[in-house]
Amino acid sequence: MDEELAQQYGYRDSYAAGGLLFCSGQLGVDTDGHVPKDPARQFELAFAALETLLARHGLGPADIVDLTSFHVHYPLHMEAFMRSKAAFMGGATCCWTAVGVTALGYPDALAEIKTIARLGNNAG
């Protein structure tokens, strides 16, 4: 997590409580901090960021119980998003809500993905 963001905005990329891990929205940003113009690449990067965040806590896609995605220009890029989501989830399923929005907090971002995952043996 970027400590500058934490201090400037009171931001945390994740928070564990009650046997669950709440993950802030992940965006498709490359290592240089740029948002690719290609929607499919953005979605791949967003899911890669989520995978990295979950892995820090010893978790993976199968531990996700709820996923919320926010989409600019919904439903324009949903086919590409669904391909990236399916590749990331690897057959695992969870509750999912897709929300159309007019803009996100990062210029040119087309989607943001936030999740809730279960920690440890907190299976339901």
Brief write-up:
The protein is 30% helix and 29% strand. With 124 residues, it is an alpha+beta fold.
Please characterize this protein's 3D structure.
Helix content is 30%, strand content 29%. Helix 2 (39-56) packs parallel to helix 3. Strand 3, helix 3 (78-89) and strand 4 (95-101) form a beta-alpha-beta unit. The chain is globular. With 124 residues, it is of the alpha+beta class. The protein contains three helices and five strands, in the order αββαβαββ. It has helices at residues 3-9, 39-56, 78-89; strands spanning 14-17, 20-27, 64-72, 95-101, 111-118. It has one domain: 2-Layer Sandwich (60s Ribosomal Protein L30, Chain: A), CATH 3.30.1330.40. It has a five-stranded mixed β-sheet, with helices on one face.
Q: Which series of helices and strands comes N to C?
A: HEEHEHEE
Helix content: 25-40%
The CATH homologous superfamily name equals RutC-like
CATH architecture: 2-Layer Sandwich
Strand content: 25-35%
The biggest beta sheet, please? 5 strands, mixed
The count of strands amounts to 5
SSE inventory with pairings:
Blueprint: H1 3-9, E1 14-17, E2 20-27, H2 39-56, E3 64-72, H3 78-89, E4 95-101, E5 111-118
Parallel strand pairs: 3-4
Antiparallel strand pairs: 1-2, 2-5, 3-5
Helix pairs in contact: 2-3
Notable features of this structure?
single chain; 124 residues; alpha+beta; 60s Ribosomal Protein L30, Chain: A; 5-stranded mixed beta sheet; 5 strands; globular
